[in-house]
Amino acid sequence: MRILVIQTAWIGDNILTLPLIQILAEAGNEVEVMTTPKAHQIYVNNPFVSDILLFDKNGADRGIGGILRIVPIIKSRNYDAALLAQRWWRSALIAFLAGIPLRIGFKSSPAKVLYTKTVDVSNFDHEAKRLAALATPLGITYSQLPQPKLYPAESHRIQAHLFLSENAPKGKRLIFIAPGSAWETKRYPFFAEVGRKLVESGYAIGIVGTIGEKELCRSIAKEIGRETFVSISNDILFTSTLFSFGELVIANDSGAGHIAAASGVPVVSIFGPTTPEMGFYPLASKARVVEVNLECRPCGPHGHKRCPKGHHNCMRLIKPEEVVAAALSLIE
Length: 332
Prior knowledge:
Helix 3 packs across helix 4 (89-97) and helix 7 packs across helix 8 (214-224). The chain has helices at 11-15, 18-26, 64-76, 89-97, 127-132, 154-167, 191-200, 214-224, 236-244, 255-261, 313-316, 320-331; strands at residues 2-6, 30-35, 51-54, 81-84, 102-106, 117-119, 173-178, 203-209, 228-232, 248-252, 267-270, 287-290. It folds into 2 domains: 2-138, Glycogen Phosphorylase B (Rossmann fold, 3-Layer(aba) Sandwich), CATH 3.40.50.2000; 154-331, Glycogen Phosphorylase B (Rossmann fold, 3-Layer(aba) Sandwich), CATH 3.40.50. The protein is an alpha/beta fold. The termini are far apart. The protein has 12 helices and 12 strands. It is globular, with a radius of gyration of 20 Å. Strand 8 (203-209), helix 8 and strand 9 (228-232) form a beta-alpha-beta unit. It has a 6-stranded parallel sheet, with helices on both faces. The mean pLDDT is 97.
């Protein structure tokens, strides 16, 4: 069977779609993915992905023009089924207009009227497990949910090794901090203090972020002051390889934590406005979540630009010592 998986959401959502793709491919199906230019590297070199279609929903493919561009391309590929990992109308409309005969999505989706089959999942399951359930109408089951995995090329390893040899403090065990998030209230405000305490414990600190997070990363590195360097890149596979040279990654509830998990690196995730029970914590063999219990959590499916209550206690009440303790518990 030729299957198109449509996933045009965030970096973390795409990484959590990887187990579904592996399950489909291991059952003998040819699996292709439609995703965004920002997320496409997640599927590059993946042995379970036959091809990648790009849909720039926030750029060149914005609006009805993008739908009209992609539909004939998808139609020409004669897919047997589309799995709608992205729950909203646009993805469903594309699959519908392309005439894909079997369109599988979630029963809770507002676009379910355009599906031919739906799956009912628990809100308390991990998102990767919820996504894997999309395979069940095809008669596909699995004994164990696969771990998400990224596949950097040797060129990424060479690039990362060269970067570290030129920038990282010599002779130190390395911990990465990824302080960014698309949502401002998801950003832990005390990363600099965490970094200083880890430096005092003998570690070097790499502050990692995207191009849009450059100033944030540089500011934190400056506050830490020593045994610290900054890596700024939008290249997911480079960042994945960079993480693999470290002992641990500390991140918010953000894409960086999922990249770390899919790179086989222990990860500490700091959760503020969102909660792990929502099902989006990184799937790593070694992982810890740091959070504080408050009645106002979660305050929505994502973070906000500003705390709705005005105090941001979901982050401000998490002590740097707690984050450091969680990190050291995974590597010492």
